Amino acid sequence: MKTYISLLRGINVSGQKKILMADLKSLYEELGFTKVQTYIQSGNVVFEYQETKTADLQQVIFNKIQSHYGFEVPNLILLPTEVEKALKNNPYQGIEKMYFVFLAEQPEKENIKTLSEFNFDNEFYNLGHKMIYFHCPNGYGKAKLSNNFFENKLKVSATTRNLRTTNKLLEMANSQCHSEENF
Question: How far is Cα 85 from Cα 83, in angstroms, rounded to an integer?
Fold first, then answer.
C-alpha cells in the first residue's frame, strides 16, 4: 500500500460545494481507500491505496464526487515526498504568511512569462517545479495573487494550502508510512 495526499479545490468556501468531512471520508472508503484521514474543512485527505498513477486516482475521485454530489470538484493527488520537497525548497523559510500553490502540471514558458509581467506591492512569489511559493504579509484574503489569478495566468489547474496545513498533511502522511513499517 502507498500513502497519498488528496487536495480538493474549492469546497466549503462561502457555503458553496458543501461536503462534510465525515461524508468525504466515507466516500474515499467506498472507493477502496484505507486509513482515510481528513484535515480541516477545506478538503485535505490522507489515505492509502495500491500503487496507482496519481492522474488515475484524481479522475476516480473527481468522478465519485460528481456522481455523488452533482458538482465538479477538481483535486490534486500528491505523494508525501512531493510535499516534503516543497517544504524543503521553500524560499520563504521562517515566514508565517506563506502559501503553497500546488500546480497540476508545469506551466508553459509563455504563460510563465505572462505571470512575470504582474507585480503587486507586498505580495511575493517564487515559481518552482509544479509549485508556486507565495508570501503575502497582509494576508491571503486581501491578496490579488489568488489561486484563481495564478490559474488564469498560467493556464494550469491549482490548489493552495497554507504553511500550517501543508506541514500537518506531511505529518499525517508520514505517521501512516511509519505505522506501516511497524507491522
Answer: 5
pLDDT in tens, 67-118: 999 999 999 999 999 999 999 999 999 998 899 999 999 999 999 999 999 9
Alpha carbons within 13 angstroms on the beta-carbon side of residue 82 total: 20
- Quick one: DSSP state of residue 108? P
Angle between the N-to-C axes of helices 54-69 and 21-30, in degrees from 0 to 180, rounded to the nearest 10: 120
Pairing between β-strand 124-128 and β-strand 34-39 as defined by DSSP bridges: unpaired
**pTM (predicted TM-score):** 0.92
Residue type at 178 in one-letter notation:
H
Tell me how far apart the alpha carbons of residues 59 and 67 are, in angstroms, rounded to a whole number: 12
Q: Alpha-carbon distance 47 to 49, whole Å?
A: 7
Task: For 110-134, write each residue's pLDDT tens digit.
Answer: 999 999 999 999 999 999 999 999 9
Which structural domains are found in the chain, ordered by start?
A: 2-78 (3.30.70.1280), 82-164 (3.30.70)
Q: Can you tell me the distance from the alpha carbon of 126 to that of 121, in angstroms, rounded to the nearest whole number?
A: 15
The answer to whether 4 and 57 are in contact (CB under 8 A) is yes
